[in-house]
Amino acid sequence: MNYYIIIPAHNEEAFLASTLDSILDQTLLPQKVFLVNDNSTDTTEDIMDSFTAQNGIFQKINITSSSTHMPGSKVINAFNKGLGKIPASYGFLVKLDADIILPDNYFEKISTIFKNNPKIGIAGGFAYEQNTDGKWYLNHPMNNDHVRGAFKAYTQACFTAIGGLKSAMGWDTVDELLARYHGFDIYTEETLKVKHLRPTGNAYNSKAKYLQGKAMYRMRYGFWISFIASAKMAWKQRNVQSLFDNIQGYLSSKKGKDSFLVAKEEGDFIRSLRWRNIKKKLFR
């Protein structure tokens, strides 16, 4: 299958070259890799220029936006600049972070997964991070059927059905919920061990957890699903404060009547799916 990669990057000089080298090492190369330089003030653009000169699969796009590295709107706005360069027809599309090292068979395997089962709309591997002893350990903080936002691949049919990615915190949850709403499956391949060079959340400022709660409201979770999801997150992170931050964000969005990310019927489906999953875990 032919595929395209979009890499939004803001001040990624420490990791970008390793990410791009791992793309060049792939057994199945992409048609094009769009490198979106989002207002970088370090040597990120120089690294991009080096790789575009080295291989024609790389193409740089310069944009100017906020200098603050926040989850959600900044990265998706940059992604969408690359999306405008994608041709009308493709096999699958990849949103990739600039701090990732992929195994060399990564995209060959993803291609095979999509070809073998057209019902699969989103696929990816598992994230590993390095501890202080230099050992790589599994750090996949959500369910095993969730593909991390740092390395998501979408078939064209699925990406079109979900209407692209939402420019908001929670985009990498709502995309999977909408994929299921439209009848697509999510597939994770445990043999694809992706090295995540920057520990999860390190680049985000203190507002991120507050925004997570706002995202739950905008995804039409309702209060109790939001509370349960926030409590689970707080327990996994061993951080009770994150529960309060999330709920504060949720209540703030509700009071302000923030716009929803999904339609009413999509929200009904999402709540029903969430409750089924909660009950399954409670009574298994």
TrEMBL record:
CDD domains assigned to the protein according to its UniProt record, in alphabetical order: Glyco_tranf_GTA_type
InterPro entries noted in UniProt: Glyco_trans_2-like, Nucleotide-diphossugar_trans
Any GO MF annotation of the entry: hexosyltransferase activity
Glycosyltransferase 2-like domain boundaries: 5-145
Signal peptide: none
Stated name of the protein: Glycosyltransferase family 2 protein
Annotated source species: Cerina litoralis
